[in-house]
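Entry 12.
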Amino acid sequence: MSMLNRETWDYAHLYFGRQWLRMGLCVLPFTVIGMLMVYGQDETVVGIVGGAVAAVQIFLMLLPIVWTERELHRRFDE
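Predicted 3D structure (tokens):
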């Protein structure tokens, strides 16, 4: 939807950027806390927890794609 014209393209990138920043700031404390909980642990434990944290981060950081598409459909008619 963002590729329809320049207006939708600009709006989508501005909206997505703001949402991604907000999501990143929300995820950051949980990431830091989660990794501090395993600080100094065995390498395997840190790897497992780090992998789990990264998987959750990836999922959460992809949510703004869905939100942006919904916002584009709400704001612009095709």
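Annotation: The chain is about 85% helix and 0% strand. The helical segments are 6-37, 43-75.
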